Amino acid sequence: MHKKSKIIAAIVAVFVIIGLVWLVRPLDGYIESPGEADDLSQFVKIDGKNDTSKGRYNITSVYLSRANGFSYLQTKINPHMSYAKSEDIMGGQSSEVFNEVQNFYMQSAIANAEQVAFKKANQEITATYRGIYVLSVSDTSHFKKSIKVGDTITAVDGHHYENSDGFIKYLANKKKGVRVTVDYLRNGKKGQTSGDTIKLPSSKSPEYPNGRSGIGIVLTDNVAVSTSRKITVDPGKIGGPSGGLMFTLQMYDQLTGNKLSKNRNISGTGTMNVNGYVGEIGGIDKKVIAAKEAGSTVFFAPYIVPTKEILKYEEQHKTNYELARDTAKKYAPNIKVIPVETFQDAVNYLETGQVIKTTDKVK
Fold first, then answer.
1. SS3 breakdown of the chain: % helix, strand, coil, rounded to 5?
2. CA dihedral in degrees (236, 242, 243, 249; nearest 10)?
3. Structure pTM?
4. What pLDDT is recorded for position 359?
């Protein structure tokens, strides 16, 4: 019996060691959890001054950390943590390229925010559209070997547009296999290459629900902005495009005299295009929790009509607004989630306390 007990103890010890090794061993994935809700007044200066009003606008973020066995197990008991495969987060990119791409997204978001805020405030601003940043090139693209991340595409078939939508629409309805010529800049030097269009997969875009043609790149705008009043924006280590709406609100309120926030603690998320439209983002449930921890009572969430086709591609099969609304109802009842399709929708709410324009669509 004594010898048998030693064998059993040895076997148990082996399993314990294996378990402990698994708990600390890095996995091929990342843990997403609520990040911070940072006060944007510390990032934005106009005429050399920060916003000193008592209200605040917060940019919300998702914290990304390398997964191990222990943190993976946490996702099974913590509803605010989730696991994602490396491929889904990085898209096959190295961490250096990924960080560079997130910085491109942020700089584009800031440029768009400046354009919308200054125009809405009737302040002078000039934007020079350079072209489109290449953020990634798909493996099926015919330009995989000739176009690189960080290039700026300036023309397609000799056509230069004043925004990325122009490039997208030019290619969208072409048939698969049509030869196109692309002009680009790389480290300040001009280049040109040719390749065939490919059919892109269907997406949640209401404009192209069945997919469209393209050249197989992910892009964002490369815009140089010149303003009548000096504005400096330092986002620190925050990257990505999802802070566009909140940056726009911060800039606009500072430009017009800090009258909109009205002492409120306001958070939110959403991309911002040059025409003032708000776009959807990822991890909005975690951003609601970050807003709760920062004491926010208002949270702006991108709104789109929840069609059956769109919901197939949505996180948890809910639109941003639906997921934010349901998360707040369950975990952050003191937060009022406000659906916005445009920057003007957010301004309307802050001015009147009412959801104007999208009310008839929201259920």
1. 35, 30, 35
2. 170
3. 0.84
4. 43
